[in-house]
Amino acid sequence: MIPQEIMQQIRRIQIRTSRMVKDLLAGQYESVFKGQGMEFREAREYVPGDDVRMIDANVSARTGVPHVKLLAEERELTVLLVVDASASGQFGSISRFKTDLAAEVCAVLAFSATQNNDKVGLIMFTDDVELYVPPNKGRRHVLRVIREVLYFEPKGKGTNISEALHFLNRVTRRRAVVFLVSDFLAEEYETPLRIANTRHDIIAVTVTDPREEILPDVGLVSVRDVETGRETLVNTRDRKVRERYTKEAQRRIREREQAFQRTRVDAIRVRTDRPYVPELFRFFRMRERRHG
Description:
Blueprint: H1 4-23, H2 28-33, E1 38-45, H3 57-63, E2 67-73, E3 78-84, H4 98-115, E4 119-125, E5 129-136, H5 139-151, H6 161-171, E6 177-182, H7 190-199, E7 201-208, E8 220-224, E9 231-235, H8 239-263, E10 266-271, H9 277-291
Parallel strand pairs: 3-4, 3-6, 6-7, 7-10
Antiparallel strand pairs: 1-2, 4-5, 8-9
């Protein structure tokens, strides 16, 4: 049985995000994703101005002439939330944990999808995929998805984005809109991300906290890696230590952003110290301009 505290939290998120979807994001989700759920119809010869991402490599190789895929619009979309449940999400230096922020963003996306009569599914992962909720429609189903994101108790602590993407490709044959929600504190996920993005429309939702980028001057502190359990004593009064910390954080961010660029994955960047609504608007506007 779900504790009353969790039920109240689900209810608060439902009220807040439902109003946001209705008043702020009405129409934007539909205008961005309508027509993006496609299935293959036929191929024709490439014409200058066609989207090079739609080139059909097999037909082009067989005929010796570049061909592009012609797609037919599906009646409905499948939206999948692929959510990182690793231990690093249980961190927050401002007003909430990264997991809480991730759950609310997932709620907004899920309610937007169900308002558009789309199916919504969920994959929760750590070192391995720990939960799969097949896509379905309806408000009751969406509430279950949100409940799982909030209440799920993972067995693992680490982060294996690659395995989550492999699982996604196994269970979802038809093209889907996939929101990959993670802090991306992981390694070697670029190739699986590229492959998954050729089959689906992958949007990376990066969830971060300011203390992951800047180390404050608070004296001698014990720092523990929640995923490995390793503890380190750090003298934050040392300016060189703080500079090295910031430099390493900037390297991780730069490598993450470069991976998104190389794999042509769009990103929604949310932080625990900032409102996430402006970032959602930025994403929707960017998508509207691209597909407009």
